[in-house]
């Protein structure tokens, strides 16, 4: 194809053939017994994995207690989190990680609504990387060239959702990362941030210049919390944490504003901690790779957690009680007792038995490396970067370097493709009966937990290997109908 848009139009035209060949491939590698029983990613709230036995058992036991006040459960969580992160940190739990984002933005970024006269404006800085829409949509995009960025994404599809999510008089400042590429790709043709070659020092310097320009209105910084190369974090600091995150934390300290880190599809305890990267507040979606009950876990420095906890109604009432149990401003975020019981069981298990989470990730990583050695066309193998991450709770498979200046690589699909069901690698896996990993912007995110681990948490290697073989085949089939073989 002469032009890139024609390349993706050809793939779109061939989707029926891709699906037909995928169904045939499923028969060849004997996937019938796994149909609709195995998935390659539990990092999506749209299809959480099954709850482990230790979570279910804890909930059952808690419900045998006839009088079980929530304040006792909240105290258990606070004590456990302080055991893990230190006494200088505190915790709050919400019903989802998205609620945790909104609560933290309302408490720490949004201008006050009280007093006479017009409310002033506030602005927070977001590096223009991937997944920016989850936390970037709470403000009006600035500069205006970015006002369309979130319009077709999951959290803000359509104008109504954009308006409903945005907070009053709050702006989002987007800053491009130095060394990253911003290239249009996909059937749903949109800009994909390709971050493998991000340069941390220069990106930090650019962010600092923008922060200085907006210092009078600057309310804070926000980043995604994943530590992998595909998210722009190939460069590490001395403690192994992403260098760019550490540099942004330093900027937050210099400007005396909070630094919020959204690690939704990640693992606490064995992954990055707020102390590792200097985050004011860090949050996780615990129903994803942690496979807990649905809830958002927020851990942060006590100074920043006090207003968050007060807003939730767990920071004390005016008549001396320790908690009003989510009857504060953000009553919509109440997680409920059973969610918190499940969360306690999960955190205790990760803390006391980290191997239960690390071993399946390590084994799955090895299987992925082995299976992708046979990928065709073979010329693409050297362009694939496979990264193990406990922070991410799984494996990142990045293939953006299969593209050369004068040669097309494995087709890159936009996040918008994921939500319009125009990512044929993912839909081919659906046709095979395998719940697909999330794939966009040249990244594939894979994690154990959905039919790939047993009730004791051990990886089921046969299921895992067959599912990964299916992923390899799906990529090969799409490459074939893209004219790359």
Explain how this protein is built.
Helices cover 39% and strands 16% of the residues. It has 485 residues and is α/β, with parallel strands linked by helices. It folds into two domains: 4-50 and 354-481, Alpha-Beta Complex (Aspartate Aminotransferase, domain 1), CATH 3.90.1150; 53-352, Type I PLP-dependent aspartate aminotransferase-like (Major domain) (Aspartate Aminotransferase, domain 2), CATH 3.40.640.10. The strands form four sheets. An eight-stranded mixed sheet has the order 2-11-10-9-8-3-5-4. The protein has a four-stranded antiparallel sheet with strand order 12-13-16-15. A two-stranded parallel ribbon has the order 1-14. α2 packs across α15 (424-432) and α2 (15-28) runs antiparallel to α16. The radius of gyration is 23 Å and the shape is globular. The model is unreliable at 155-160 (pLDDT under 50).
């Amino acid at each position: 194809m002469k032009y890139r848009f024609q390349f993706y139009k050809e793939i779109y035209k061939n989707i029926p053939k891709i699906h037909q060949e995928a169904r045939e491939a499923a028969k060849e590698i004997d996937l019938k017994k796994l149909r609709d029983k195995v998935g390659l990613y539990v990092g999506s709230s749209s299809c959480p994995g099954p709850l482990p036995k230790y979570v279910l058992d804890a909930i059952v036991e808690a419900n045998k207690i006839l009088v079980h006040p929530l304040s006792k459960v909240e105290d258990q969580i606070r004590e456990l989190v302080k055991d893990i992160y230190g006494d200088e940190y505190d915790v709050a739990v919400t019903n989802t990680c998205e609620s945790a984002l909104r609560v933290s933005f309302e408490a720490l970024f949004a201008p006050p609504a009280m007093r006479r006269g017009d409310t002033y404006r506030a602005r927070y800085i977001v590096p223009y990387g991937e997944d920016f829409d989850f936390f970037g949509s709470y403000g009006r995009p600035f500069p205006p060239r970015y006002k369309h960025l979130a319009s077709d994404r999951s959290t803000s599809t359509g104008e109504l959702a954009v308006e409903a999510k945005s907070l009053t008089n709050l702006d989002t400042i987007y800053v491009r990362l130095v060394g990253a590429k911003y290239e249009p790709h996909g059937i749903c043709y949109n800009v994909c941030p390709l971050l493998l070659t991000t340069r941390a020092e220069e990106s930090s310097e650019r962010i600092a210049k923008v922060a200085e320009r907006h210092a009078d209105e600057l309310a804070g910084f926000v980043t995604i919390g994943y530590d992998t190369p595909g998210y722009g974090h190939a460069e590490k600091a001395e403690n192994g944490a992403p260098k760019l995150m550490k540099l942004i934390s330093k900027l937050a300290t210099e400007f005396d504003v909070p630094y919020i880190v959204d690690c939704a599809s990640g693992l606490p305890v064995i992954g990055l901690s707020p102390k590792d990267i200097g985050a004011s507040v860090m949050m996780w979606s615990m129903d994803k790779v942690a496979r807990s009950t649905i809830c958002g876990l927020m851990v942060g420095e006590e100074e920043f957690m006090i207003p968050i906890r007060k807003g939730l109604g767990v920071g004390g009432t005016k008549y001396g009680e320790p908690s009003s149990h989510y009857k504060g401003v953000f009553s919509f975020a109440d997680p409920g007792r059973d969610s918190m019981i499940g969360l306690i069981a999960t955190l205790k298990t990760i803390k006391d038995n980290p191997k239960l989470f690390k071993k399946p990730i390590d084994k799955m990583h090895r299987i992925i490396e082995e299976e992708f050695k046979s990928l065709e066309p073979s010329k693409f193998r050297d362009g694939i970067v496979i990264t193990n991450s406990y922070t991410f709770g799984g494996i990142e498979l990045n293939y953006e370097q299969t593209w050369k200046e004068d040669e097309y690589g494995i087709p890159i699909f936009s996040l918008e493709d994921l939500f319009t069901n125009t990512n044929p690698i993912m839909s081919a896996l659906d046709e095979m009966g395998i719940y697909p990993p999330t794939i966009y912007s040249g990244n594939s995110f894979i994690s154990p937990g959905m039919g790939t681990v047993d009730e004791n948490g051990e990886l089921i290697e046969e299921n895992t290997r067959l599912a990964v073989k299916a992923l390899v085949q799906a990529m090969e089939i799409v490459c074939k109908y893209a004219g790359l073989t």
